[in-house]
Specification:
Elements: H1 3-13, E1 23-31, H2 36-49, E2 61-68, E3 71-77, E4 84-92, E5 96-98, E6 102-104, E7 109-116, E8 123-127, H3 132-147
Antiparallel strand pairs: 1-2, 1-8, 2-3, 3-4, 5-7, 6-7, 7-8
Length: 148
């Protein structure tokens, strides 16, 4: 993530920080998962409606995230500017644990699953190649927090 975008995410996080709260990491990840069934149905529907002239794919949505010493915050990028908007999800750090990061995207990226205490399903985070180091760092910090 370039420095300008990092500063924009930091500017979105700063007003939400509690007294003494510190930002540790900022990056981007694709959050969630899309089933094979949904991908096939979307491709087939768009292909049928456009007589095969357009191909559509469905992917998890990219979100900026910031890890503080107390919380994990997710921000949706603006559709026009790409700047982070209001937070779409705020998770207390003590309730979140991460599985160890593993390879994804043909071994180029990284992936982890967040487990939120009290929730049945985990939240899958996929880090594209440019952000995989931050993804591994996030997984390590949240794994260490869960075991401490």
């Amino acid at each position: 993530m370039n420095n300008r975008r990092r500063q924009q995410v930091l500017a979105a996080v700063t007003p939400l920080l509690a007294q003494g709260e510190q930002v540790e990491l900022i990056s981007l990840a694709k959050v969630g998962s899309v089933s094979v069934k949904r991908r096939v149905l979307t491709s087939a529907l768009v292909g049928a409606l456009t007589a095969g002239t357009v191909i559509a794919t469905v992917q998890p949505r990219p979100l900026y995230w910031a890890l503080t010493d107390r919380r994990l915050l997710f921000f949706e990028p603006g559709s026009v500017t790409g700047r982070p908007g209001k937070p779409v999800m705020v998770l207390p750090r003590e309730l979140v644990a991460a599985s160890p990061a593993r390879k994804a995207l043909l071994g180029l990226g990284a992936q982890t699953v967040l487990t939120v205490q009290g929730e049945e399903k985990g939240l899958k985070l996929t880090f594209p190649p440019a952000f995989k180091a931050a993804g591994r760092d996030l997984a390590a910090r949240l794994t260490a927090t869960a075991t401490a």
